[in-house]
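Support reply, case 0932

Customer input (verbatim):
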Amino acid sequence: MKITPLNNLTVHLQRLVKGRLWLKVIIGISLGALTGVLLNPSSGIFSQDLSERIGGWLDLPGQVFLRLVQMIMIPLIFTSIISGIVSNSAENLKSMGLRLLLYFLFTTTVAITIGVLLTLIMAPGELVYEMGGLPGAQEVLTIPDGTQSLKSLPEMIVSLIPDNPLEAMLTGEMLGIVIFTIIVGIAITQLKTDYAQPIMRFSEAIQKICMIIIGWAMLIVPYAVFGLIAALLSRIGVDILVGLGYYMLVVIIGLFCLLVFYLVLLKIITGMSPWRFLKAIRAPQLLAFSTASSAAVMPLSMKTADQELNVSSNISDFVIPVGASINMDGTALFQCVSAIFLAQVYGVELGVIELVLITFTIVAASIGTPAIPGGGVIILASVLQSSGIPTDGLIVIIGIDRILGMFRTTINVTGDLVACVVFDKWFSRKQEPVLDEISTT
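Our regenerated output:
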């Protein structure tokens, strides 16, 4: 039985790109910023109570969009990874899986290193600290001893395998879900064809349903962005946003440096022209910038890898779904910059040991970051808590996260596509995604 690749289910996504969704999003951000400034009680036009009520309603489309994407993220990733595993031979999968994990760990480490160096050199938090800092900046804080984290490392490794997959799905523990899915996918390859066919038909149907729901969610993206930005500025005001502009600049510069690293790596390993690569991936980049969701862009990324970059579907069907779940280099850089930035804001001095602990924590935390808007901030909270840095400043980070999320998601998607080209160079293209190649017991 022929498996219909997920990249063939991207009609609605391509229409959104051709309809310049990214331009509509930028217009939505601009109008939302203007509306939020007018709604802010500091403007004197609206009272505090009325501003909060209006902001709540403006925030509604954005919350609906986030819930729709969250709702289909797990089944979409689950079925895509299974399809990618079934499409590969056991030997190819074993070799590629190990290399892919090491490759993602390498690029994530590079991203975090860039973030650490930039933040320490440019010191955006010190500027905010001199401007008066954030609430709670006067509290005396200490960094917890990192030896306890090292002692619990074996427990952390064991906990990667979920003892209750349903609980992992309910709580959104993406790394546990990915590991469970990979185990199930490998087990499916050991079934006879008659038993495996119904499972693959069901997976294909789930993928099509998810694509329909994604199409619905994308229709409200411009309105969602407008409402989120308007509600944000109605609460925090422009002064804080301007004060955080330098921090945002540091994150964007770091993401640009990461993009340059990707292009250099691509040129060295594959010999592909960076300009040709950027031109080929323009559509998924624009959609990633518009939606700030790697999961939503995943089908279009797979189609682009196959048709524009000439990557084998066996490679893209496995690398991109896994990458959308665990390869969050842009998010890791953002988390690193944000953690050190907040430490600077609150006057917490970080030594070499503390920076190394933060680095390891972010590497571990970035694997499994939810591929949805705001997913990076969710993980950032746990990073701050484990590092002894106050989480009070997250209120402001959450406020500007939508803007930064658009940039870092674009880099995340770019990193997944670079990985596809690199692994296509390393592995042959002899395997075809046909179910009857499944080994029998």
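We compared this against your earlier run and they match. Two observations from our side: Residues 24-431 form a domain with the Proton glutamate symport protein fold (CATH 1.10.3860.10). The longest helix spans residues 90-122. Please reopen the case if you see a mismatch on your end.
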